[in-house]
């Protein structure tokens, strides 16, 4: 999930890598998208999201920014991302009491100390569990336990989980990819949905997704999240219900909320339960 899109080998320096700094349109920064930094403060989000989190590796484009951009566009909300991923880790390294798990829970809790709500968890992991038959066979139980633990520790028993199923690795020793994919698909807990990443383009290492594939995966995650967990009224701009003749106020409504806006005002906006919509002006 940390993202290796655009990470290339440096042919002039053995075992060195660098990020090509190519950011597709879907992953561009936006004033309404923020990230929670390693220093535990909010800042404008930009690629690579995990540069100060997965700091021992070269990070590139991942699915986070394209996910956030689609959610922002569809729901007209501020989006805060709390990156926690570290590449090349197994599911057991995310068990309760382990450093990675405890850091994730801490970051999630601190991120909402000044307001806001945790609306979901995106999970894309599994490559490191495909080499050993035992790891693959216990993956489902370990993943279900992780979900139960994080929901309990955050006090969010219905926390939405959107999980990208592991892609097919066509090199290396990942002999049990399909077993891990089957385990991910068998997870039967409420508010857990899967996105199948198989078929997305891989880099020349036949292991990590290309930049374009990372952006596409982010859109896929967002589509599933919006479909399953976003209330429909938040995804639909309000419609003009009526204009009162000779009065400045105009009534607007969504399918479950309503409000009043002055179409002659400079901002010409209405807030409906904290979601802001812009209406056409009247003259």
UniProtKB/TrEMBL annotation:
Domain of life: Eukaryota
Pfam families hit by this protein: SASA
UniProt xrefs under Gene3D superfamilies: SGNH hydrolase
Keyword terms of this UniProt record: Hydrolase
Protein name: Sialate O-acetylesterase domain-containing protein
Source organism (scientific name): Salix brachista
GO molecular function: hydrolase activity
Sialate O-acetylesterase domain location: 1-227
């Amino acid at each position: 999930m940390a993202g290796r899109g655009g990470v290339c080998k440096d042919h002039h320096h053995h075992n060195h890598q660098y990020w090509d700094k190519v950011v597709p349109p879907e992953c561009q920064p936006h004033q309404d998208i923020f990230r929670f930094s390693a220093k535990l403060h909010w800042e404008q989000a930009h690629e690579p999201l995990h540069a100060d989190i997965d700091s021992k590796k070269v990070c590139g484009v991942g699915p986070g920014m394209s996910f956030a951009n689609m959610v922002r566009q569809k729901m007209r909300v501020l989006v805060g991302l709390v990156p926690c991923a570290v590449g090349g880790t197994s599911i057991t390294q995310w068990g309760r009491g382990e450093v990675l798990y405890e850091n994730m829970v801490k970051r999630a809790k601190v991120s909402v100390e000044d307001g806001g709500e945790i609306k979901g968890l995106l999970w894309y992991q599994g490559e490191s569990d495909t080499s050993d038959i035992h790891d693959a066979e216990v993956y489902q139980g370990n993943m279900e336990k992780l979900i139960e633990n994080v929901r309990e520790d955050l006090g969010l028993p219905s926390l939405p989980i959107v999980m990208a199923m592991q892609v097919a690795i066509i090199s290396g020793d990942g002999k049990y990819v399909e077993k891990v994919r089957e385990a991910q698909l068998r997870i039967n807990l409420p508010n857990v949905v899967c996105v199948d990443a198989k078929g997305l383009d891989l880099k020349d290492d036949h292991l990590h997704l290309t930049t374009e594939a990372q952006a596409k995966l982010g859109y896929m995650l967002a589509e599933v999240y919006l479909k399953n967990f976003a209330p429909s009224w938040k995804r639909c701009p309000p419609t003009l219900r009526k204009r009162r003749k000779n009065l400045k106020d105009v009534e607007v409504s969504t399918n479950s909320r309503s409000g009043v806006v002055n179409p002659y005002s400079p901002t010409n906006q209405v807030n409906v339960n904290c979601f802001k919509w812009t209406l056409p002006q009247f003259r």
